[in-house]
Amino acid sequence: MSEKYRFFKGGLFFVTMTVVGWVDVFSRRRYADEIIKNLNYCIDHKGLQVYEFVIMTNHIHMICAAEDGDVSKVIKDFKSFTAKEIIRLIQENKRESRREWLLYMFRYFAKGTSPKCEFQFWQHRNHPVSLESNHFIRQKSNYILYNPVKAGIVAEPHHYIYSSANPDTKLKLS
User: Fold this and answer.
1) Domain containing 10 — which CATH number?
2) Residue 159 to residue 157: CA distance in whole angstroms
3) Among 11, 14, 68, 127, which is most buried by a count of CB atoms within 10 Å?
């Protein structure tokens, strides 16, 4: 694997976390709010520093670092916990019209991964890109901020509730 897509201690990274099969889970506010809640936990208790973010319907982009320099460990813990929590929320949500289909998809993607793993929620790779210049940081920041605009969800970046562009975001930005 290329060095371009690896975490290293002390870096600032553009990270993408994608739901398996590009399943549109975060189109439901309940699940996107769970992501915000857990990112805030990682900020408060694990030293995650988030500078820019966007939660799209099936993936998350962030520019982030970690106080102790180990972003990889924080992201691993975040993905592990949120996968279990969102699966649990789906299972318990009697009003989720896609419940059976979602659980089927997450079981399907878990096949062949581990005998202990019933569901797989996140794709394994995060594609961390090291941000080593101001130009590259601005480029990735604009990509994050305009992702919902390019997707046709909103007309202006600050209108999207699950983005650092929104002044009312519930995420504790660095």
Assistant:
1) 3.30.70.1290
2) 5
3) 14
